[in-house]
């Protein structure tokens, strides 16, 4: 932490960084490979170039994230049965950003909302015919409607 405070002072102090935190990366039984770049424990009077400072900051930020709380996600699953066919829509929502709220980390998932959607018989007939799955390709209009109802 001392070296980070010297070479990347804008990263510390953060209220969420707790050096006493020990998560799964500290447990050899839960980590298969130990190949990581971490900042050195010693600080020095070395002056880093702009590019070196950027790389060091990225490494230090990644290192500090292990001392932050984990992100918390909510999962949502919608299951529909239409004409004896099962349709499933799944979504994952970020409930608490964890360290992301302090360092503007992009989430692996986008915030999405499940919208109300009325699926007409015409839409469903592209997917299901007489209770059996059809290999018919849905029209662009149907694809557009499905993307509107269930955004990625």
**Largest sheet, if any?**
2 strands, antiparallel
Computed over alpha carbons, the radius of gyration is 24 Å
Strand segment count: 4
Q: Alpha-carbon distance between the termini?
A: 39 Å
* Proportion of beta-strand residues: 15-25%
> How many independent structural domains?
2
| Helix run count | 5
Helix fraction, binned, reads: 25-40%
Q: Tell me the overall shape.
A: elongated
Helix-strand pattern: HHEEHHEEH
Low-confidence stretches: 105-114, 122-131
User: What class would the helix/strand composition place it in?
Assistant: alpha+beta
Pfam families: Topoisom_bac
GO cellular component, one term: cytoplasmic replication fork
Keywords: Isomerase
Domain Topo IA-type catalytic: 1-152
């Amino acid at each position: 932490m001392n070296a980070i405070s010297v070479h990347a002072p804008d990263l510390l102090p953060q209220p969420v960084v707790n050096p006493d935190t020990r998560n799964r990366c500290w447990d050899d039984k839960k980590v298969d490979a130990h190949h990581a770049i971490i900042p050195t424990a010693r600080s020095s009077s070395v002056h880093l170039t702009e590019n070196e400072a950027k790389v060091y900051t990225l490494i230090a930020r990644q290192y500090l994230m292990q001392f932050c709380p984990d992100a918390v996600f909510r999962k949502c699953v919608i299951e529909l049965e239409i004409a004896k066919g099962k349709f499933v829509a799944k979504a994952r929502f970020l409930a608490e950003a964890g360290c992301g709220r302090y360092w503007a980390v992009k989430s692996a998932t986008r915030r999405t909302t499940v919208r109300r959607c009325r699926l007409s018989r015409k839409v469903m007939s592209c997917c299901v015919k007489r209770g059996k799955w059809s290999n018919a390709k849905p029209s662009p209009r149907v694809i557009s409607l499905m993307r509107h109802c269930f955004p990625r």
